[in-house]
Specification:
58% helix; 135 residues; mainly alpha
């Protein structure tokens, strides 16, 4: 089976071109603050219900994580990679749980992945929990 790779940089390009919005429905994202309570200027503002606002939110999230870290997150969640490194965890947690969840849900709702949507959400939660433990 050929490996399918998509980077956050590619996702941002699709978002900017408006192509990705045709492939995935608007997400229902819980806007409750799940952070530690400390003010963190690195966290992106929560999205509203408008598709345009969601795309802006996702772009802001993508701007907070490097392409290599985004690729490792993608591999872990969508390709069953088993390894994570400290720097990736630092970027994932630094961008915030809401950003991480929004990106994974956005990709998982796409036509290639929606069949295993629940599995990818489980992998995403596992990744975030591991990263919190590591940090």
């Amino acid at each position: 089976m050929a490996r399918f790779m998509i980077s956050l940089a590619c996702m941002v390009l699709l978002l900017q071109l408006g192509i990705a919005s045709m492939a995935s429905p608007v997400l229902a994202i819980d806007t409750a603050d799940e952070s530690t309570g400390a003010d963190n200027e690195n966290l992106a503002e929560s999205p509203g219900s408008s598709p345009d606002i969601l795309l802006i939110f996702l772009k802001n999230c993508a701007d907070m994580i490097s392409e290599p870290a985004g690729d490792r997150v993608f591999s872990y969640v969508f390709e069953d990679e088993e390894s994570l490194d400290y720097d990736t965890c630092l970027e994932v947690v630094g961008s915030g749980k809401e950003c991480h969840d929004a990106f994974v849900k956005y990709v998982a709702e796409g036509p290639k992945f929606k069949v295993n949507y629940d599995y990818y959400l489980k992998r995403s939660e596992e990744l975030y929990s591991i990263c919190l433990t590591v940090l």
